[in-house]
Amino acid sequence: DLTVETGVSNGMRASLESGSIITGAKFVNIDYYADAEPAQIDTFLDYPTIPTIETGLGQIQYKVETILDKVNNLPLEDTVTAANSALASLDDTLASLDHILENESTRDLTRQLQETLSELQTALGGLSPGSGIYQSLDASLLQLNRTLDNIESLTVAPTEDNTLSRLTLVTTGSDEVIEQITKQLNKLVDVVKLMDLTEGAHIERELMLVKVVARDAQRDEVKRLVDIFRGRIIDVTNDTYTIELTGSGDKIDAFIEALSVTEIIEVVRSGVSGIARGTRALKI
Length: 284
Known about the structure:
The longest helix is centred in the middle third of the chain and has 22 residues, at 104-125. 12% of the residues are buried. Helix 2 (56-73) packs antiparallel against helix 5 (104-125) and helix 3 packs antiparallel against helix 4. This protein is an alpha+beta fold. The chain is 43% helix and 25% strand. Strands 7, 8, 9, 10 and 11 form a 5-stranded antiparallel sheet that branches.
């Protein structure tokens, strides 16, 4: 006890550290801190109790866990909730989705996430690259970045069941990234069932509206391209065409590239919707 008491008086403190942010494993670390506040040993059930101290890593972990909780809840869960509450009419659904995209909390989440990622990068610079803590935190940070970067499109629409909406998420990444996204979606209370369309034959379509400059000789060239890609010109002025095109994402991308013959004024894409071929279906 005298030895422990001497160590405490010289700055010995205990702290709870994270062994793995992903698995949640923790361990107690005992070390000396020169700037520790004065403290004395307490006793609990006749055993000496070493004073504790909160480390910078613990604070960082708390911030990461807080941000991950927000990522789990936004924007997917809020999007589904807003869509379910707006099934009365298509106009209401579109208005609800616009409100979510412009929501101050969504923009604030992006700002907070960027700030926290920056703080984590700075903190990693002060740790030894060979340490287990460094490698675990660095791997978790990389995984979080990949998950956020790989979400390409998100669409929500009513279904034949007026109590349910269908959300289609398009993403790319390694098997590990896809597995993590799937697990996060399955945790959401509003998710009734999830299906990976790429596991079997399926059909995918996307709608695009594009407005282009169409003057003089450009008008015939643009109309020729529209016919080749089986699109439709749905609005005409003296200087512009507005074109509607439906197809796979690759077809949409190829048409945009072919429009280099003129100037694109505006592009609106709906995002991908998909359905399985044959008898396979997403049903409860």
